[in-house]
């Protein structure tokens, strides 16, 4: 085999190995990658039923209802659209109406979301970056959000 042929074989083998490695990494991560949506994006784009994602926004005032067997239903809003969220389990101590949250779970239908995990903000000045960015895009400042989360 000539020098040029060996070089071509080595480069081809390295490229093939790299492609296989990238493919295996993406295959392993496919269940770990979770996209973030705000209520407006979720209402407008309508991700398919069963899609795993995170939704963030403010807990709408007056929307919190408790069902049997520790099931809680509430609405997450960005002051434009509301998404109904159901969650079974214990809510974080800082969870309350008008506060920012991030919920991770699956889409059950248009405007309906089932959360597996609910995270509440820990300070009145703190807002998860994704949620704060979504609210800023809609012209809602940090002071306005808590007063207008109705």
TrEMBL record:
What is its membrane topology?
Answer: Single-pass type II membrane protein
Where is the stretch described as Disordered? 131-150
- Cellular compartment(s): Cell membrane; Membrane
Q: HAMAP family from the entry?
A: CcmE (MF_01959)
Q: What is its main location?
A: membrane
- One CC-aspect GO term: plasma membrane
Q: Name one GO biological process term.
A: protein-heme linkage
In terms of superkingdom, the source organism counts as Bacteria
Keyword field contains ATP-binding? no
Query: Which family does the UniProt entry place this protein in?
Result: Belongs to the CcmE/CycJ family.
Ordered alphabetically, the record's keywords are: Cell membrane, Cytochrome c-type biogenesis, Heme, Iron, Membrane, Metal-binding, Signal-anchor, Transmembrane, Transmembrane helix
Q: Which NCBIfam families match?
A: PRK13254.1-1 (NF009727), PRK13254.1-5 (NF009731)
Report what the protein is called.
Cytochrome c-type biogenesis protein CcmE
Per the UniProt topology annotation, the Cytoplasmic ranges are 1-7
Indicate the transmembrane segments per the record: 7-29
- Give the gene that encodes this protein: ccmE
Taken from the record's topology, the Extracellular segments are 29-150
* Residue numbers binding heme: 122, 126
What is the purpose of this protein? Heme chaperone required for the biogenesis of c-type cytochromes. Transiently binds heme delivered by CcmC and transfers the heme to apo-cytochromes in a process facilitated by CcmF and CcmH.
Q: Which Pfam families match?
A: CcmE
